[in-house]
Design the sequence.
């Protein structure tokens, strides 16, 4: 039931912000903040308990809740949380709060409706991370798209209509193919066992026939790789990230991309281990190409926001590499990279948004020498640029290092190629610092420095990214047993125990 | 005819009697509000009868009609559609200077025709139902005699509906020649190579042709955009929902007697029609600048999706059809309800420009229209999502992968134009021209439809229970 509340609180908070916030600008902001903070408190109370710690250590489900929804089709409300969901839910709430704070002064039009959309996206993302019923998962998967579409198309920048449509079409197309795969899985399971159900744990228990597995997997892969995104499915990303309002970019880069990686870890790897092995070399190659390609294109951008968007393509290539490399270290590194990239890129988008709010342009050509007038903004910008290039001490370094170590042994050639992305990352990150913060003062407008609210928020994000880099253990501990299970699947008795726990919870 | 027969027929009797009563009242006293109220009372009474008689054992009334839950379910659906149309017509007609009252007589008669169709078990009732419906619709489509577009719509509908009736009649004659019966039940298809196989096949194909006109599926769709554009918006809503839904329900029952899946050539024809309708409807809708024409093309595509259930087998397909139609009814009524509410005396609000910046001027209408468009696109939280899900599930369950993939591809194409309208509504535009205020009755209907949309989209369980009872009585394919 607590898991359901985690999702319901933002939904209600969004409605409340919309209903009570019409006409004023400040009350929707406070209501949204209150909703997300109370969600955080709920999560902390839940993650801190004794029983959940022992469940995490075993890699089992901490919480499991089911309720009938459409019993005629075997659809249930099945929510559960394990270590992977736990860290991602935590990331969602942190970035959600950051998104509310960073749009505090940016959004002045239709504030109430903005916060409705923002909180509903967060609810959708939480639903994706917590659903263990494939219908419910698809429901939330689609649900998070619609408010995001509105966020881009109403509060976005100049070219918003084009960008939002492109975003919606790409992700929707991928999602529909996933729906076909979900249904195929449903019918195969139903015919084999006589039980028609969308429940993940039951579907996991029955193997997929070899001849269908490849096609069913392709549907899932398509949805997740578009979302991640993997080259060549990435064209929606630069447009959507660039045109979205700051909060939208933070959520897109920090969270929406992670749902794709989550889907791979939760569904594709456990459900189709054999079929995946046949295409893994190709995917690894595309991942490596994506790392280099994203970095090269990032360097070629003159729009600062677009530059940051392309760095996401590069960083998510590392996630992909880690996911498909097939070792525990690489998989844990991929999860680590999801968290680190979420925080660091989210922060970079916030900084770009702050710059744009101040000087009304994102063009690198009209920036320069900010350090003299805005030292706080510039120094924080430097910190996140360094984090993004993978400087030791930051979370990104720990993550990328783990991924490269974990994948070098099985795939030395591709990994070496991918590692060159780190050099390119240094080039584009320093390029940002050089062009925007250092160098001669531009003739254009100079930004005023950060206020206490903005500086405070970014300081917290710096603390998180350094914490992830220096002490990755707390973030890795809930995840590693799970990754171990993915690499060497649990014996049958383990599944029975999970099902037993589920029955008790009913 | 026994008392039990009369009781079973009571919804139909109420509809017919209301039409007669409204006609008499008009003869005595012309009063728009009174007429509308009387009509609504008739609809409510008929719906009440349906609800009361639901879940009774099937009952054959004469060889012509079989009154079972399947018939009642669709009768209930078209009666509710009729009452929604009546409620939204009231404020719509108020804006037009014409004789308003006769509209309701025609609406009641058309609803009666629709309600009879799903109960038909015989070619005679099949044809009678279609004719009651068509004749009323000729007049309704051309109701505004001083509006050229409306007259064009009426005439076009008259000619094409007459042609389609001729096709249906000829097809019936051929099937009768091959099988020797007019009742569905005895209509065993002759063996594939045996005598009478060819006339039978030709007859069924002609019936499909005639019904195809009514459903406006490709290649029998050419009348749709013109009639949708020209007819008054509430009438368009009725044509798009009740008329198509009832004919489709009849078609499904007929096919279930026929055993369509065993006749591969017929199944191939239906599959071809379905896939062509999806692509043609969606691609042509992309090119439209007029909302009514756009919805017309989109309805062609939706009927294409729906035809998947005619190809799939078993109760899963029948319940998918029922659910999809219920969702489609709610959605389409809501969409045309918004068009009607935005229209003024000079004509319907059909140009895309009329919707620019609607979210500022009429937030309620914009919210309703946006949710209806999301439902048409099949986005979660709306009935359209659940409907599409069941449709894909039915297709996947019968391994109709080709048709299902066509549906998926078309859903993406469809998103383009649905989202385009939504973007236009949320884009600030000219604010100087103010849309007419929506009347209270129209707003109430729209809000109810939106609530239904979300209810079915989030918690379809109760509706599925009702549908389960409806499809339970349908005979499985005979062979």
Sequence:
């Amino acid at each position: 039931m607590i898991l359901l509340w985690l999702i319901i609180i933002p939904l209600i908070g969004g409605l409340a912000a919309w209903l009570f916030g019409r006409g004023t600008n400040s009350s929707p902001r406070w209501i949204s903040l209150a909703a997300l903070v109370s969600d955080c408190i709920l999560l902390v109370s839940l993650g801190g308990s004794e029983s959940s710690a022992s469940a995490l250590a075993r890699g089992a489900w901490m919480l499991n809740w089911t309720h009938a929804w459409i019993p005629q089709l075997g659809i249930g409300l099945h929510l559960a949380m394990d270590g992977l969901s736990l860290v991602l839910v935590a990331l969602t709430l942190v970035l959600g709060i950051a998104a509310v704070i960073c749009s505090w002064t940016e959004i002045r039009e239709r504030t109430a409706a903005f916060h409705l959309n923002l909180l509903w996206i967060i609810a959708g993302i939480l639903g994706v991370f917590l659903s263990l019923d494939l219908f419910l998962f698809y429901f939330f998967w689609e649900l998070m798209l619609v408010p995001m579409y509105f966020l881009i198309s109403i509060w976005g920048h100049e070219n918003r209509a084009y960008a939002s449509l492109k975003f919606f079409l790409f992700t929707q197309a991928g999602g529909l193919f996933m729906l076909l795969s979900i249904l195929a899985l449903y019918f195969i399971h139903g015919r084999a066992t006589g039980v028609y159900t969308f429940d993940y744990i039951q579907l996991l228990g029955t193997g997929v026939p070899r001849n269908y597995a490849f096609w069913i997997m392709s549907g899932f892969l398509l949805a997740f790789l578009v979302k991640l995104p993997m080259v060549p499915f990435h064209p929606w990303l630069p447009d959507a990230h660039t045109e979205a309002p700051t909060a939208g970019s933070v959520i897109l880069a920090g969270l929406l991309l992670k749902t794709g990686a989550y889907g791979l870890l939760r569904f594709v790897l456990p459900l189709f281990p054999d079929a995946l092995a046949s295409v893994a070399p190709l995917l690894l190659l595309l991942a490596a190409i994506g790392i280099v390609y994203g970095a090269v294109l990032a360097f070629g951008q003159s729009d600062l926001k677009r530059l940051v968007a392309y760095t996401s393509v590069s960083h998510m290539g590392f996630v992909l590499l880690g996911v498909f490399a097939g070792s525990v270290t690489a998989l844990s590194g991929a999860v680590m990279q999801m968290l680190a990239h979420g925080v660091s890129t989210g922060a970079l988008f916030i900084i770009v948004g702050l710059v744009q709010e101040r000087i009304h342009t994102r063009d690198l050509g009209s920036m320069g020498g900010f350090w003299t007038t805005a030292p706080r903004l510039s120094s924080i910008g430097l910190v996140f640029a360094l984090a993004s290039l993978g400087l030791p001490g930051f979370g990104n370094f720990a993550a990328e290092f783990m991924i490269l170590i974990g994948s070098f042994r099985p795939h030395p050639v591709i990994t070496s190629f991918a590692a060159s992305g780190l050099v390119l990352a240094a080039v584009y990150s320093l390029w940002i610092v050089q062009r925007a913060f250092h160098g001669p003062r531009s003739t254009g407008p100079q930004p005023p420095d950060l206020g206490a609210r903005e500086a405070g928020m970014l300081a917290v994000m710096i603390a998180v990214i350094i914490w992830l880099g220096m002490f990755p253990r707390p973030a890795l501990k809930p995840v590693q047993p799970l990754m171990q299970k993915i690499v060497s699947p649990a014996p049958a008795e383990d599944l029975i125990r999970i099902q037993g726990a589920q029955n008790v919870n009913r | 005819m026994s008392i039990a027969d009369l009781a079973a027929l009571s919804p139909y009797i109420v509809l017919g009697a209301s039409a007669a009563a409204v006609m008499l009242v008009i003869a005595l006293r012309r009063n728009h509000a009174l007429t509308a109220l009387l009509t609504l009372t008739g609809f409510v009474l008929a719906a009440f009868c349906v609800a009361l008689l639901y879940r009774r054992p099937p009952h054959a009334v004469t060889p012509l009609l079989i009154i079972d839950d399947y018939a009642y379910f669709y009768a209930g659906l078209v009666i509710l559609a009729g009452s929604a149309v009546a409620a939204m017509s009231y404020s719509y007609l108020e804006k037009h200077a014409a004789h308003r009252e006769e509209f309701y007589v025609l609406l009641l008669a058309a609803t009666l025709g629709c309600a009879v169709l799903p109960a038909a078990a015989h070619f005679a009732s099949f044809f009678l139902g279609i004719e009651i419906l068509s004749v009323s619709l000729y007049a309704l489509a051309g109701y505004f005699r001083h509006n050229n577009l409306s007259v064009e719509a009426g005439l076009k509908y008259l000619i094409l509906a007459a042609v389609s009736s001729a096709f249906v009649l000829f097809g019936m004659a051929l099937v009768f020649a091959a099988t020797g019966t007019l009742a569905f039940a005895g209509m065993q298809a002759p063996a594939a190579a045996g005598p009478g196989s060819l006339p039978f096949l030709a007859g069924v194909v002609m019936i499909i042709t005639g019904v195809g006109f009514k459903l406006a599926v490709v290649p029998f769709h050419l009348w749709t955009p013109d009639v949708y554009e020209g007819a008054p918006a509430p009438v368009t809503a009725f044509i798009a929902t009740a008329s198509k839904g009832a004919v489709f329900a009849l078609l499904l029952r007929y096919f279930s007697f026929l055993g369509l899946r065993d006749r591969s050539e017929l199944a191939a024809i239906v599959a071809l029609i379905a896939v062509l309708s999806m692509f043609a409807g969606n691609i042509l809708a992309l090119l439209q600048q007029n909302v009514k024409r756009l919805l017309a093309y989109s309805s062609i595509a939706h009927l294409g999706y729906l035809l998947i259930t005619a190809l799939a087998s078993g109760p899963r397909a029948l319940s998918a059809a029922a659910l999809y139609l219920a969702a489609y009814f709610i959605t389409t009524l809501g969409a045309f309800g918004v068009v009607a509410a935005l229209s003024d005396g000079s004509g319907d609000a059909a140009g895309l420009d009329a919707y620019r910046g609607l979210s500022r001027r009429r937030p309620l209408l914009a919210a309703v229209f946006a949710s209806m468009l999301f439902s048409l696109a099949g986005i979660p939280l709306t009935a359209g999502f659940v409907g599409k899900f069941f449709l894909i599930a039915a297709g996947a369950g019968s391994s109709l992968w080709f048709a299902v993939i066509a549906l998926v591809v078309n859903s993406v194409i469809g998103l383009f134009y649905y989202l385009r309208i939504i973007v236009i509504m949320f884009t600030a535009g000219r604010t100087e021209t103010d849309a007419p205020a929506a009347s209270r009755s129209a707003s109430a209907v729209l809000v109810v439809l939106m609530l239904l949309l979300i209810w079915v989209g989030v918690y379809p369980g109760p509706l599925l229970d009702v549908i389960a009872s409806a499809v339970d009585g349908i005979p499985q394919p005979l062979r």
Observations:
- Residues 492-506 of chain A have pLDDT under 50 and may be disordered.
